[in-house]
Design a protein that fits this description.
Bound molecules: pyridoxal-5'-phosphate
CATH class of the largest domain: Alpha Beta
CATH topology of the largest domain: Aspartate Aminotransferase, domain 2
Number of domains: 2
Distance between the termini: 26 Å
Number of helices: 12
CATH superfamily of the largest domain: Type I PLP-dependent aspartate aminotransferase-like (Major domain)
Order of helices and strands: EHHEHEHEHEHEHEEHHEEHEEHEH
Number of strands: 13
Strand order of the largest sheet: 2-8-7-6-5-3-4
CATH architecture of the largest domain: 3-Layer(aba) Sandwich
Strand content: 5-15%
Length: 383
């Protein structure tokens, strides 16, 4: 199999991830913070080690501000629903994932929350003038993706954060597509909250993700329950306990910690350059194919490793099906859970085919997919 669907979830994972999960499976049977026996203490160390590694990778300061969740969706729900109140106003962009839009739509429907969307240009760039205009209306929260999962462009978070900070509007960044493959320094960016997916470019297992919550940022927890300590008291106010009720995914978090250490050893900057090289190789191969249209920003612009395209003669769904069936190439077709990004791109009618090479994709994988698309894009459609 040639796997080019890393924007959905990355594959393969570093062998260190498997080794850590295997070690947990064989020898760490306890639950962190629940019991004074050796294996519970060891489980606690696994989770703490991952939290520290994550805080260091994101330059997030105190590891207690990193909250582990099941995925980026859960992190975004916590950040959005935990900070917005009835009747509040939220500013967002026109390229967000449904993990941002749907919680906002829910709040609009059930809690009279007003949602304003800043415009993006057709290459995905945010219209900063329009964004600033909306932020100057003093909304209660701004939610901005770091990189679109359909278009691939990376948004200028430091510039965006300067605008929100000046207006004293808390900023939540969706880093699902960037954490692990684009250098992130929360301290330098000056963001208030940042959601990440552990299972994408961070190379961790499925069922992992998290949220950074800035030290002074007030967020209500969405669930209450056992946290292991202070059982006679109410829900703890200390972090991360306040937000992590219930037995955590210790083995998965351990695997994520191992993945983060693997990434730190290579350096995110080097990962970005390597993925960028592959993405450019893919783009230059695809550009030579006459029957397709490629979307997104110029290759020289800052972008993550994904390409959206459409073939003139063959529907994207059929193309993905034939790539998989005839060539063993895994890609993704459709809307990629981000319909608004397709409005921005002008592909709302049928979506796009998305190719997303990862750190472990080879040059041969790229050459094979270019050749396969060249062959398929000129054939007569099935229907
Ligand atoms: C930009 C963006 N945000 C959020 C998500 C949701 O991530 P998860 O699947 O970890 O919940 C995705 C996943 O595709 C994404 O691309």
């Amino acid at each position: 199999m040639i796997y080019l669907d890393n924007a959905a979830t990355s594959f393969p994972k570093p062998k260190e991830v498997l080794a850590k999960i295997d070690k947990c499976f064989k020898s760490i049977g306890g639950s962190p913070g629940r019991g004074a026996h050796l294996t519970s203490l060891e489980a606690g160390r696994v989770v703490l080690g991952a939290r520290e590694a994550m805080a260091q990778l994101l330059e997030a300061g105190n590891p207690e501000n990193i909250i582990f969740t099941a995925n980026a969706t859960e992190a975004l729900n916590l950040a959005i629903k935990g900070s917005v109140r009835d009747g509040d106003t939220v500013v967002t962009t026109s390229v967000e994932h449904n993990s941002v839009y749907r919680p906002l739509e829910y709040l609009a429907e059930h809690h009279q929350v007003k949602v304003m969307r800043a415009a993006n240009f057709s290459n995905g760039d945010l219209n900063l003038a329009h964004f600033k205009e909306l932020i100057e209306k003093s909304p209660d929260l701004a939610v901005v993706t770091h990189a679109s999962n359909v278009i691939g462009n990376i948004l200028p978070i430091e510039e965006i954060a300067a605008i929100t900070r000046k207006a004293k509007v808390p900023l939540l960044v969706d880093a699902a597509q960037t954490a692990g493959s684009v250098p992130i320094s929360i301290e330098k960016m000056g963001v208030d909250m940042l959601a990440f997916a552990g299972h994408k470019a961070l190379l961790g297992p499925p069922g992992t993700g998290g949220l950074y919550i800035g030290p002074g940022v007030a967020v209500r927890e969405l669930k209450q329950g056992g946290t292991g300590g202070a059982s006679k008291d109410g829900q703890p106010k200390i972090r991360p306990d306040r937000y992590e009720s219930g037995t955590p995914n210790t083995w998965g978090i351990g695997g994520l910690g191992a993945a983060v250490k693997f990434i730190s050893k290579i350096g995110v900057e080097n990962i970005y350059l390597e993925e960028n090289r592959k993405m450019k190789k893919l783009l230059s191969g695809l550009e030579r194919i006459s029957g397709i249209k490629i979307y997104g920003p110029n290759p020289s612009e800052q972008r993550v490793s994904l390409v959206s395209l459409r073939a003139k003669k063959i529907d994207s769904g059929e193309l993905a099906y034939l790539l998989d069936k005839n060539y063993g190439i895994a890609t993704r077709a459709g809307y990629h859970c981000a319909p608004e990004a397709h409005q921005t791109l002008g592909t709302y009618d049928t979506g796009t085919l998305r190719l997303s090479p990862g750190y472990f994709s080879t040059d041969e994988d790229i050459e094979a997919v270019v050749q396969a698309i060249d062959e398929l894009s000129h054939r007569t459609p099935l229907r």
